[in-house]
Specification:
binds adenosine-5'-diphosphate; alpha+beta
C-alpha cells in the first residue's frame, strides 16, 4: 500500500509582513528598529525589534523565491519533529506586496548567541546522533532514502526522489545531477573518470544500518550556540540518507572541535572505513560549489574523482 505522508507544518503563510505580525502578536504591535545580520550569502537577514520588546529574526529574498522559504520551513519542521536537537521556532513565511517590488520572507525566533562552553561539543554530538537515530518512516514515501519533497542545497535544486538503496540514492540524486550541471567545466578525460567512479560506487559506499534524517548542509555557519551554550541547527537541506554524509560535510571547511568527533564516534553511527568514504560524500558539495561559484573549486573536484578511480 502506498504510504501517505501528512505534511501540516503548522507555519502560516501571509501576503503581508504587517499582517503576519498582527496575527501573531496582536493588531497593536509595531515594528521598531531593525538591523542587518551579516553572514548569509543567499538571503538578506535581519533582527527586528517589536514594540513589545521582542526581537525576531527575518530572512528576505525576491518575491518569486518564496518557495525557498517554504522549503527551509519544511526542513526545520522535519528536524523539530524528531525532538532531538533545537532549531529556531518558526513563526510565519510569505510575501509582502505592500510596496511596488515586494519581497518574500521567513520569520522565526531570534537566537541570541552565547559562548561555546566545554560541554557544547559533547551535547551537540549527542543531539545530532539522536537526530540521526530518529525514526524516518514518516519522511520518505515509497522508499528508505529521500525526503518529503525536493529542496535546495545553497541555490541549487536538490533531488530527493525515494530509493531503497543508499548507493543508488547517492549516485542518481546527488553525484549525477551535480556532475551534469557542471559538465561545461570538465574535459573528456574527466567524463570517463566520473563514469568509472559511478560504476564502482557500490564497492566504495556502504548501506547504513538504518536510514537517518540528515541536516544536509552541516558546516560551522549552520550551527548556532545560544546563551545557555546549547546547539541549534539552522539553514538545513534535509533528506534521509547515511549519517556519515553529515559528518563528512562537517570536515569539508576546516572541521569542528576534536571533542565533537570523539563524542560522535562513541554513538556507533560511523561504520568502519568512514574516513575512506568521506571525500566521496563531499564530492557532492564540492561539485555544488563548482556550479555555484565556478572554476575555483574545480581542482578540488578533480582531485577527489581521481583519488577514487586510480
Ligand atoms: P542564508 O539563508 O542566506 O544562508 P543564514 O541562514 O546563513 O542565511 O543566516 C544569515 C545569518 O543570520 C547568519 O549569520 C546566521 O548565523 C544568522 N541567523 C540565522 N538564523 C538566525 C536566528 N534564528 N537568530 C539569529 N541569527 C540567525
Amino acid at each position: 500500500m502506498e504510504k501517505h505522508i501528512e505534511m501540516n507544518i503548522g507555519v502560516p503563510k501571509f501576503n503581508s509582513l504587517a499582517g503576519a505580525l498582527a496575527e501573531i502578536f496582536g493588531s497593536d504591535i509595531r515594528l521598531g528598529q531593525s538591523f542587518r545580520i551579516p553572514g548569509g550569502d543567499i538571503n538578506k537577514a535581519y533582527g527586528m525589534q517589536l514594540s513589545n520588546g521582542k526581537i525576531l529574526f527575518m530572512k528576505t529574498n525576491e518575491k518569486q523565491k518564496v518557495d525557498l522559504f517554504l522549503s527551509e520551513a519544511i526542513n526545520l519542521w522535519a528536524i523539530s519533529l524528531t525532538n532531538t536537537i533545537n532549531t529556531p521556532k518558526l513563526l510565519a513565511y510569505g510575501t509582502d506586496d505592500s510596496e511596488e517590488i515586494g519581497y518574500s520572507f521567513l520569520l522565526m525566533e531570534y537566537i541570541e548567541l552565547g559562548d561555546i562552553k566545554d560541554e557544547f561539543w559533547n551535547v551537540f554530538a549527542e543531539n545530532l546522533a539522536s537526530m540521526h537515530k530518529a525514526d524516518t518512516s514518516s519522511l520518505v514515501k515509497n522508499g528508505k532514502f529521500g525526503f518529503l519533497q525536493d529542496n535546495f542545497i545553497g541555490r541549487t535544486k536538490q533531488i530527493n526522489l525515494a530509493k531503497d538503496s543508499w548507493v543508488e540514492f547517492f549516485r542518481d540524486n546527488r553525484l549525477v545531477p551535480q556532475f551534469k550541471m557542471a559538465e561545461k567545466y570538465f574535459e573528456k578525460d574527466d567524463f570517463s573518470k566520473m563514469d568509472k567512479l559511478l560504476n564502482k560506487l557500490d564497492k566504495i559506499l556502504v548501506e547504513p544500518e538504518k536510514p537517518s534524517l540528515l541536516h544536509g548542509d552541516l558546516w560551522g555557519g549552520n550551527v548556532l550556540c545560544d546563551t545557555k551554550s546549547l546547539p541549534l541547527l539552522i539553514d538545513p537541506a534535509c533528506y534521509v540518507g547515511h549519517p556519515e554524509a553529515d559528518i563528512a560535510m562537517t570536515e569539508l571547511f576546516g572541521g569542528f572541535s576534536g571533542k565533537f568527533y570523539d563524542a560522535y564516534k562513541n554513538t556507533g553511527l560511523l561504520q568502519s572505513g568512514y574516513s575512506e568514504r568521506r571525500d566521496l560524500y563531499n564530492l557532492y558539495h564540492v561539485l555544488n560549489h563548482v556550479n555555484l561559484f565556478g572554476h575555483s573549486y574545480l581542482s578540488a573536484a578533480k582531485a577527489i574523482i581521481k583519488k577514487y578511480v586510480e
